[in-house]
UniProtKB/TrEMBL annotation:
Topology versus the membrane: Multi-pass membrane protein
Compartments reported by the entry: Membrane
GO molecular function: transmembrane transporter activity
Pfam families: Sugar_tr
Domain spans labelled Major facilitator superfamily (MFS) profile: 1-129
Alphabetical UniProt keywords: Membrane, Transmembrane, Transmembrane helix, Transport
Protein name in UniProt: Major facilitator superfamily (MFS) profile domain-containing protein
InterPro entries linked to this entry: MFS_dom, MFS_sugar_transport-like, Myo-inositol_Transporter, Sugar_transporter_CS
GO cellular component annotations of the record: membrane
Record family assignment: Belongs to the major facilitator superfamily. Sugar transporter (TC 2.A.1.1) family.
Membrane-spanning segments: 15-43, 55-76, 83-103
Length: 129
């Protein structure tokens, strides 16, 4: 196709709407801090004093990120993108809030965090992924 025809396709509302949605989804992913979480996963587990070894935990978090991607690609036709996106964003919010709550409890009541909530950082980061 000539370049002029391809550029005319960009004027199609469906094309630029899809591009805007794609850019916004990418921005949401960056704004949730996924890069920072992945980069500091070992440090997060080390500072949380998690029950599981921090290197094993970070491997679990990354490995678990693969399965939901495959399942989501299979479920998108059945349940729709909008519903899956809303569920995903709600789970991200809950996971980050619970991780923040864990570190708040750890700061103010370290004995409670150590005895009863050592599992929470791993679960929160797995759900986050």
């Amino acid at each position: 196709e000539p370049l002029g025809e391809r550029l005319r396709e960009l004027k199609n509302p469906a094309v630029y709407r899809a591009a805007i949605i794609g850019c916004m989804l990418s921005a949401f992913q960056v704004l949730t801090g996924i890069t920072a979480v992945l980069f500091y996963t070992v440090y997060i587990f080390k500072s949380a004093g998690a029950d599981v070894d921090e290197y094993t935990s970070s491997s679990i978090v990354v490995a678990v990120g693969i399965l939901p991607g495959v399942l989501a690609s299979l479920a998108v036709d059945r349940y729709g993108r909008r519903l899956l996106l809303l569920i995903s964003e709600a789970l991200v919010v809950m996971a980050l809030a619970s991780l923040g709550a864990f570190f708040n409890v750890q700061k103010h009541q370290p004995e409670v965090a150590e005895k009863h909530l050592g599992w929470l950082p791993l679960v929160a980061l797995v759900v986050f992924m």
